[in-house]
Amino acid sequence: MAGRLDGKVALVTGASSGIGEATAIALAAEGAAVAIAARRTDRLEALRAKLDEQGTSVVVLELDVTDEQACRSAVQSTVDELGGLDLLVNNAGVMLLGAIEGADTTDWTRMIETNVLGLMFMTHASLPHLLERSGHVIQVSSTAGRVAAKGAGVYNASKFAVNAFSESLRQEVTQRGVRVTLIEPGVVETELRDHITDQAAKESISARAADMRQLQSGDIAAAIVYAATQPDHVAVNEILVRPTDQGW
Ligand SMILES: NC(=O)c1ccc[n+]([C@@H]2O[C@H](COP(=O)([O-])OP(=O)(O)OC[C@H]3O[C@@H](n4cnc5c(N)ncnc54)[C@H](OP(=O)(O)O)[C@@H]3O)[C@@H](O)[C@H]2O)c1
């Protein structure tokens, strides 16, 4: 059966788990060839094996998005091995929640370097290729990019930055055929919060999440596929998706 993304090439960062992994699977199910990028290549190889079974063309890219040169190489390898680039999904991210007072500022550096600079480096490296093929950039931001909250200051700042950068990018490239989409999930059940180093913050977000029917990664992948499969003249610029039970 023909897929809605037959002939398209997508590069997904943070494809080794959670939303990125589900997105790679969903884009492949629509016929896209996929470049899957992250630091944990063992997880990417397991995903490749799954995608191979359904006949998807896959490239595995070991990538730390905080390294600008590695971002350039990942984009170039995608173009060289899959013939071009139509869709960049900037999904790699970390959410190291905690109070500002007394914070371990290495958490701040990691969040800004990964969520903001990494996404910017990937966008910058991809843009010439996307402009060639009326491509699409999908940024996985967050409700945290729309509403700031106590205990999330630097994560909020990182996702607000993603939103500002993306709107500026949209104005720069949309009339040259490149679409820009922000995806803003609420609470999704992934390993994201397992990496929080501040124990109080980790317990607090885990308790709040346990209290609701959380979104699943596939719910967000479906929103990404929706944006990616519209006709060329339709630019879905923003999708905000919360769990029904999330009152904040
Ligand atoms: N889960 C939620 O509730 C939620 C809500 C709103 C927004 N989001 C956003 O959704 C995105 C995906 O998160 P998730 O929930 O799916 O969490 P996740 O399962 O922890 O996935 C995060 C992904 O980012 C990758 N990553 C982290 N640092 C990286 C780096 N320096 N270079 C390359 N890849 C890196 C990780 O891969 P490696 O460790 O293998 O590199 C992993 O594949 C993030 O941007 C997050 O902010 C999540």
Task: Note down, in words, how this protein is organized.
This protein is of the alpha/beta class. The protein has a single domain, classed as NAD(P)-binding Rossmann-like Domain (Rossmann fold). 46% of the residues lie in helices and 15% in strands. It is built from seven helices and seven strands; from the N terminus they run βαβαβαβαβαβααβ. It has helices at 18-29, 41-53, 68-82, 105-132, 153-173, 199-210, 217-228, and strands at residues 9-13, 33-38, 58-62, 87-90, 136-140, 179-185, 238-241. The chain has a seven-stranded parallel beta sheet, with helices on both faces. Strand 2 (33-38), helix 2 and strand 3 (58-62) form a beta-alpha-beta unit. Helix 1 (18-29) crosses helix 7 (217-228), helix 3 runs parallel beside helix 4 and helix 4 runs parallel beside helix 5. The longest helix has 28 residues, at 105-132. The chain is globular. The termini are far apart. The relative contact order is 0.15. The model has no long low-confidence stretch (mean pLDDT 98). Residues 13-14, 16-20, 38-40, 63-66, 91-95, 114, 118, 140, 142, 185, 187-188, 190-192 line the site of NADP nicotinamide-adenine-dinucleotide phosphate.
